[in-house]
Amino acid sequence: MHQCLIEESVLGWEELEVEVVEMRKNNVITVCFIENIDPMGVHTGDSFYSAPMLTISQEVQDSLKDQAFRIVEKIGVIGGTNVQFAHDPKSGRIIVIEINPRTSRSSALASKATGFPIALISAMLAAGLTLDEIECGKYGTLDKYVPDGDYVVIKFARWAFEKFKGSEDKLGTQMKAVGEVMSIGKTYKEAFQKAIRSLEIGQYGLGYAKNYYEMSKEELLKLLIVPTSQRQFIMYEALRKGVTVDELYELTSIKPYFIEQMKELVEEEENILTYKGKELPVEVLKQA
Length: 288
What we know:
disordered N terminus; 9 strands; alpha+beta; seven-stranded antiparallel sheet
């Protein structure tokens, strides 16, 4: 299915995931919705993504949930299942990419992001319990669980190309990440910056990575033609050099919302830099 999608041309398609749990009484609950921020073409293991979905309409989320429920009902899964979809925001077309009727890496992230112990609950269901027999905090029992929360979770992949001779820093349908970090914040920007710091690569934010700050606008745009592990850092410096949100969207197919969030970080940093060597005014510090 993945190969068929690539042959069809999936430029600009979104990759989305729904984590669900089913029990013997055919009662299904949604644990988590995940939105891949990189478009189709970058392996989900190399893409960074957010939970919950930040730019997907409620109508599309309801459609994804309905399809995921029908899939697990047809297969007859007892326990957790991760269903991955491709969505074309222009035509509205949805294609199923992959189904993982097990505790996958995405399931592990969904568990950490929501606090829902998918592996444990799956084991309890396999032992014969049903969701309406398992207690769940404010919901009473698990069959009444709905995904909620007022925070954003970001997963960012970690690569180690320097350790593998002959490997090329080029992201595609083959996963190359050696690990990942997960961060939690009140906003997308906060969670994203925390994820960068958590990578432990000497970066305390998106700005001033390697020598990208010294490059021209044209040089940066050239580096963005092919997706790499450095794409987010390059995009940040490109915005600093005056590249527009629309230009980056056309080049990367990353949605304008996420690029605009990055642009706000650039503008905030540039404003703070004007006070270099001075004490920051209280208003500026509060805003930061």
